[in-house]
Every structure is written in structure tokens, then in C-alpha cells.
User: Fold these one by one.
Assistant:
Number 1:
Amino acid sequence: HGLNPFQLERRIGEIETRIHTLEAELAQLTEDLATAGAQGDGRRARALGDAYHEKEAALSAAMEEWALLVE
């Protein structure tokens, strides 16, 4: 990774914060999707689904980077 110990610790902290943020955003999107589905709002549900998949991909990437750094 080419980071000194201080940089490594800082980067791990940044990634952990990003992971927590993405997890919270995914939880909110899940609730919003359920609401849109219950209201029969298909257009909003599709948009929320797209946003969910984008956040899910970002979370996966962040978790992969975190795993590499903490090895």
C-alpha cells in the first residue's frame, strides 16, 4: 500500500467512516424503497433501487480496500 504507519491508520479511519456512512445510507434507502413500494410509486422505487445498487457497489469497494489495508 505504500503508506507510512500514520497514513495507514488515517486511511483506515477514513474508510471505516465511509463504510458506516454507506451502511446508514443503504438502511435509509431500504426504508424509502419499502415506502415507495407500498405507495405504488414505481418510478420512485426504480430510482431508489438504482441509488441502492450504486451505494452497495461503493460499500463493497470500501470494504475491499479496508480488508487490504488491515491485513
Number 2:
Amino acid sequence: GRLLAGGDPVAADVDERLAMLFGESEPYKAFLADLQAATAREDKKAVATMVAYPFKTRVAGKDMTFENATG
């Protein structure tokens, strides 16, 4: 898709891609907004409830798996 200055995707492109993949975009945009707000306020409990477990990620080059919200 097209990019704005700073590398942010154009909202219409994101909506179009979500609609193509999932049939609609609003629930996914709402989830992302909630996730961004929770991380911005460092609300670990809220973020933990938004994640499917086990959650696999890479931190500082190391693979990590979180089996549940407590680690």
C-alpha cells in the first residue's frame, strides 16, 4: 500500500486490506486502538487479556514463550 511520511500506512489501505482478509475492518481497528492505548499507558493486565496463549515472541534476539498471563 501507499505510505505517508514517517512510514505510516494510509488508513484507507489498512481498511481495504482488513476487509479483504476478514470481511470487515471495524472490529480489528477497534482492537488495535485498544491495544495501542493499553500499551501507551503501560497497562500490562489489559494487554495480557488481549493476547492468545501460548504467546510466542522474540525479545532481544531470544525466542520466548509465555504460557499464560503470568508468564
